[in-house]
Amino acid sequence: MQVETSSSKYGIKHYPDAIKEWKKEGNYFCFYTSETILEVRVIADKIIRFRYAADGTFQRDFSYATSDTLEESPISFGIKEWEETFEIYTDVLKVFIARDNLRITITDKDGKVINQDEMGFHWQHYLQKGGKIVYCSKLVQEEECFYGLGDKPTELNLRGKRLENYGTDAYGYQKDTDPLYRNIPFYYGLHNGIGYGIFFDNTFRTIFDFGKEREDACSFWARGGEMNYYFIYGPELLDVAASYTRITGTPELPPLWTLGYHQCRWSYYPDTRVREIAAEFRNRNIPCDVIYLDIDYMEGFRCFTWSKEYFPDPAGLIRDLAAQGFKVVVIIDPGIKVDPDYAIYQEGVKNNYFCKRADGALMEGDVWPGKCVFPDFTNPEVREWWSSLFKGLAETGVRGVWNDMNEPAVFEMGTFPEDVRHDYDGEEVSHRKAHNIYGHLMSKATAAGMKKYLLPNRPFLITRSCYAGAQRWSSVWTGDNVSSWEHLWLATIQCQRLAVSGLSFAGSDIGGFIGEPDGELYTRWIQLATFHPLMRTHSASNETGFNQEPWSFGPDYEKVVAKFISLRYELLPYLYTTFWQYATHGTPMLRPLAFVAQHDAATHNCTHEFMMGDALLISHVSEEGMKEKAVYLPQGQWYYFWNDTLFQGGQQVTVATPLEEMPLFVKAGSVVPRYPVMQHTSQAPVTEMLLHVYYGDAVTLSTLYEDAGDHYGYKNGQYNVINFKQMSTATQFVLKKKYYINYETAYSHHRIVLHGLPFQAGTVLVDGAPLTLNNDNHLPDGTISFIVDRGFENITIQQA
């Protein structure tokens, strides 16, 4: 056994010695040294799993992150023996294992290095707390960039940073505050045009060093558990994202209304105030689908109760709101009030459902209700019980649940002490292992309950804390942010990072949770959030009495805010299609420019620009009083959304930023579906689907996905997938369409709005039949608008 003396307070670091023997079994390869075992598992041609047993015995192979439907599908693989290494190969990868020390080098089939161990796997005994600290260090490649790790409030490129995962209630966090709420031990590397990912599936406190301690080394380690990680090859970063989501699971489609606008506050009460808020939205013609109720709707902050004073008739209130097109989402925290007259507390104590300390005493701590106990969500029986508690809320008409304080957060203590015990699905562990998945499993149980009791409707869940894979059942938000321009920048960073970390359904508290934005900051935040998958205003307004609704800043700002919320509703078919792509293929909804143009080094450190889906490029207005902004555009041609000015990509361009606009571009060649303006998603059937088509001379593919917007018929094939292909030239516009149709829409035709046609339109043919254009079809903004049957397959416009 090789050893290395370390100055670390944890003692000596140990390294594997030479391989003594090896064996193959199915798609597993095991390599044995004097004391350690390396297991290499070929999951797919581009996905390899590595596990190390430091003492020669593997721990239970169990994960709360990986999808139950993960299929292992290596097409072809094998092993070769060389003098100094073993080589495991697939059709696209080569994995070399050094005979003398188990160090790994991974190359593509042509021998180009993708990822390479520095010191590789090693460990040390954790003398203070037991178990082992497990490490892996990799060489940093030339000009390598790193991305991922969830909600970290720092630059997108993590090169030079050290970060950790230990879910924390980070009230009023700032730039570079670490750790925060979510625990996503997954990162990307990008060098020489090659993208890859590493998912370190370990629920203990994990730390990642991207060249901070030593510029030439990237390390990750955990203070317990096993060195167990998945290597994911791209080489395109978006392919890595899709493969990671394949491992950790894809979401179900949300109900369409969840992609509308959400209004929240700490707190809207009593019920008369909630009715006033709803009425203001409708009277002012500002679209909105969702109103949230924070902790004051409960009786003394007791979960699953209603305040008799503030909400004497919750079912009646929710019924009336539904008639106006509003859905209600309520908060549920994990803390259960210690109260012998409280049925849920009684039942939990009787059945031993609450967490206990090492000496057997109940884990007690103060949160909003006062002294509380906390369910052990790592116990499957407790998760089943917790799920059953949502029957009453669902029957009252509640359509969504907001899980908060589930890091878990405890006043004064911060979180649970490490000696708290957990079932961990039969393993019985300390809080050291269970901390990072506590909120994850709370939200899983919550989602299961809401799904069960809301059938046939789809549920909605939002959670503050989670682990990798939570996208299978929940959305997230960026936590207790601050009303500042820096936090507006952090909102775009964090939502991009969450998206490429598997959690696309994310947003920030618009305007900031803490403090009071002015009208300009709030308006600019609304503009950015229009293009985030979750669009929710939320504020701790009860601290000052300040109101933070779209009309709170005066009529000039209200007009612009209403314009952008309305635009959000017009873009719902595009957003819903982008969500379907995410749910079907695992591609992130928000895409940093490095993920769409990784071969362009100018994109690697871009933070202000990102893409929503395939067609829209967004850059927020980031400073008070900003009159213009420089925006980097990737290669290709881009239309400025507000006036159809055409820009050549591969350069930085400058656009004006009056209050009523923000930098927004459309990729040339795209088809962007849009709805007519609406006040809420259930207002009326859509009788006309608009297709905004942007001329381009490169072959461009676009998609429109449709289903009922709720229920589960789409899982039985009741949906439409419509694929568009634009293949125009300098003298001819051509749009072709192919489709799978198994859902009957309310509309029978499309209104085509054609942008940027570079020649005078002559003959127009729709499926070979001529269509006459007159002056009414040529709009003042330079677009051409005409109506075609929904079933069209080919539109051709010849130059006059």
From TrEMBL:
Residues annotated as domain Glycoside hydrolase family 31 N-terminal: 38-209
> Pfam families, alphabetically?
DUF5110, Gal_mutarotas_2, Glyco_hydro_31_2nd, Glyco_hydro_31_3rd
Name the UniProt record assigns to this protein = Glycoside hydrolase family 31 protein
Q: Keyword rRNA-binding on this protein?
A: no
Q: Which organism is it from?
A: Chitinophaga qingshengii
Which family does the similarity line name? Belongs to the glycosyl hydrolase 31 family.
Q: Which InterPro entries is this protein grouped with? A: DUF5110, Gal_mutarotase_sf_dom, GH, Glyco_hydro_31_AS, Glyco_hydro_31_C, Glyco_hydro_31_N_dom, Glyco_hydro_31_TIM, Glyco_hydro_b
| Residue stretches making up the Glycosyl hydrolase family 31 C-terminal domain | 586-672
Record domain DUF5110: where: 689-736
